[in-house]
Amino acid sequence: MRFLSLIAVMLLPMTAFAETNNPSELVTGAWASGNTLDACDTAPITHFMSDGVVAAFLSKDSDLHSLGVWNVEDDTLSMTHNDFPLKGDGRSNDPVKLRILDLNETQFVTENSKGQMRSRVRCDHIELTLGHDHSVHD
User: Fold this and answer.
1) For 6-10, 21-25, 27-31, 34-38, which range has the lowest pLDDT when averaged over its residues?
2) Peptide bond preceding 85: is omega within 30 degrees of 0, i.e. cis?
3) Long-range contacts, 23-30 (Cβ 8 Å, 24+)
4) d(Cα 103, Cα 5) in Å, to the nearest integer?
5) pLDDT tens, position by position, 89-101
6) What's the mean per-residue pLDDT of the chain?
7) pLDDT tens figures, 100-136
């Protein structure tokens, strides 16, 4: 059932990011909370998809924790963080705004409204399978 919710969010109209090396393209991908690649195996993973969907996992092998949408404008990452169980009324939480302090191919550092910083490391080498369904969907 949680896959149906993820698919529904992914079908929302999103902005395509076409310009190369823009912040949105750099953010796209899987990021683990931490400073080294070891974090990719054990730390929470935030997966920013190119169509503006974001999914958070407690680790690469754990269940889906939350999902929402994201975008980057200037030096600010804005994203909704809708934890499971999702509300039946379909209303998303208000977006969280994070100031981007550092963003490159391997590191992503943000600061929240309370001044707390979070470092993330890119995890391009992992797969998030979540016990996915391999059947053909018509």
Assistant:
1) 6-10
2) yes
3) 23/72, 23/100, 23/103, 24/71, 24/72, 25/50, 26/103, 26/104, 26/105, 26/108, 27/70, 27/72, 27/77, 27/103, 27/108, 29/122, 29/123, 29/124, 30/60, 30/122, 30/123, 30/124, 30/126, 30/128
4) 30
5) 999 999 999 999 9
6) 83
7) 999 999 999 999 999 999 999 999 999 887 755 556 6
The first and second tokens of residue 95, run together, are 């977006």
What is d(CA 63, CA 73) in angstroms, rounded to the nearest whole number?
30
- According to the model, what pLDDT value does residue 132 have? 57
Residue 87 pLDDT: 86
Residue with tokens 């920013």: 48
Q: Identify whether the C-beta of residue 9 lies closer than 8 Å to the C-beta of residue 53.
A: yes
Q: Is 15's pLDDT higher than 80?
A: no
Distance, in Å, from the CA atom of 46 to the CA atom of 3, rounded to the nearest integer, reads: 17
